[in-house]
Amino acid sequence: MNKDKLVEISKNLRKDIIETINKAGSGHPGGSLSIIDILSYLYFEKMNIDVSNPKYEERDRFVLSKGHAAPALYVTLAEKGFFDKEELNHLRELGSILQGHPDAKKCPGVDICTGSLGQGFSNACGIALGNKLNNYNSKTYVVLGDGELQEGIVWEAMMAAAKYNLDNLVAIVDKNNIQLDGRVSDIMPLDNLENRISDFGWHVVQCDGHDFDDINRAFNEIEEVKDKPKCIIANTIKGKGVSFMEDNVAWHGVAPNKEQTEMAIAEIVG
Length: 270
Known about the structure:
Elements: H1 3-24, H2 29-46, E1 61-64, H3 70-80, H4 119-133, E2 140-145, H5 152-163, E3 169-175, E4 178-179, E5 182-183, H6 184-187, H7 193-199, E6 203-208, H8 212-223, E7 230-235, H9 258-269
Parallel strand pairs: 1-2, 2-3, 3-7, 6-7
Antiparallel strand pairs: 4-5
Helix pairs in contact: 1-2, 1-3, 1-9, 2-3, 4-5
């Protein structure tokens, strides 16, 4: 793992997230910034994908179940080369390939449409099951928000994944402790989350979702686990990288204005 390269990529992608959402005038900066280190690691270190052959059947798949964090996925796909970076100027525009939530029919590199919380995770389980039945040597990675875990469909899918021994499925929980209406602990607490998921038949590890060494450790650990689905609880900070957004409920779904954008970028680039 080239840690310095990943740090630099994440810094650039954070800048792109802020600029893209500012230009659009709407979007979700907090939860996009909290997952960008995970996405940087997956797309530039871990996943078996080929931009020149994006529909290769035995490729790894990625599902952004918390689809409102689409800006993070879009800037990552653009950086990887799935489409021209100029498209980032058209986030949320009518007819754009970059809709408010990922659209697999419009955006190159998007494997499944997501947005209704919990359904992306269920789709990921189905993808993993299909790949297992086809004996493909591929992984399906899916990112969920911690607030998303309040959806009952998530736990139904977890039961199914355990039943079918989907050891080719890796769920990453973006545990930033904040959702749309406030703090997760106030709305619907997720105490003992590791034990809860483990009790559903999953192998669970935790990591610092902003430390590439610890992220790498967690992914390497789950590689050794067979015959059960795996979950990484990534402890993150909403709005990571921008001091006035960090751990701040107000920045779940608000676009920064011109002055705030300049302040944020100045912090990110140092």
